[in-house]
Amino acid sequence: MFSCRYIRHLKHSYLLLLSGAIVSFFGSMMNWLDEITLPTKLAFVEDILLSIGLILSATGLLLLFRHQVVQHSLLKKIAATDPLTGALNRRAFKAPKEHKHSERTVFALVDVDHFKRINDTFGHDAGDFVLVELAKLISSHIREEDQFFRWGGEEFLLEFRQAELAQASKRMESLRQLVESSHFNLNGQAIKITVSAGLAAVSPGHGGLEKALKAADEALYRAKGNGRNRIEMAA
């Protein structure tokens, strides 16, 4: 009964468990009195109280369990989500566990061009705003089976599943053009950005995931070195 105070914030569960504990306590007290007084007079009442206490406590425990399940799911989602953009974060990134030999996955590492210049010109709030809007564009442009992650700073990682490198390159080029033609309006100011990207495919028996991510990073570096606002594919 005294432990109920630790869940006062749960209201319904707290009231049910507390009520169940109190009713069960009185039922137990009556059972004790029943042993030292007249056995037959209190038996019916104590049985009713103990039954009610058990039902209230069981209902409270059920609500508490449901709350814990919801909270656990929410905490997992928070831990896997970037708080600024709402995209998945690095912690949520998991390597594809199973790939048939005929399947391929392509990763695109995307970077906002001259992001520091945006912060210096418009302020850090503008930089955050651009990242949020870019995440929205990416989310609306990729397929349902694809995923994207905020990889760090102004970088995003796109995962094109069951796609050949040429197909993923076309999708990435379409996204690059969409970003280039978009205007991000912040407090009446139009902010234009471009992105660079490096693409690499991962397939069984060819170096695996780590090699593909490294190759995508190297391709992104080449895209920046070749003038930015472009896509480079890993050799």
TrEMBL record:
SUPFAM superfamilies (UniProt xref): Nucleotide cyclase
Domain named GGDEF: residues: 103-235
UniProt entry keywords in alphabetical sequence: Membrane, Transmembrane, Transmembrane helix
Lineage: superkingdom: Bacteria
Enzyme class name: transferase
Spans traversing the lipid bilayer: 12-33, 48-65
InterPro entries, A to Z: Diguanylate_Cyclase (IPR050469), GGDEF_dom (IPR000160), Nucleotide_cyclase (IPR029787), Rev_trsase/Diguanyl_cyclase (IPR043128)
Keyword Transmembrane part of the UniProt annotation: yes
Catalytic activity line of the entry: 2 GTP = 3',3'-c-di-GMP + 2 diphosphate
Enzyme Commission identifier(s): 2.7.7.65
Keyword Signal recorded: no
Protein name in UniProt: diguanylate cyclase
Source organism: Shewanella litorisediminis
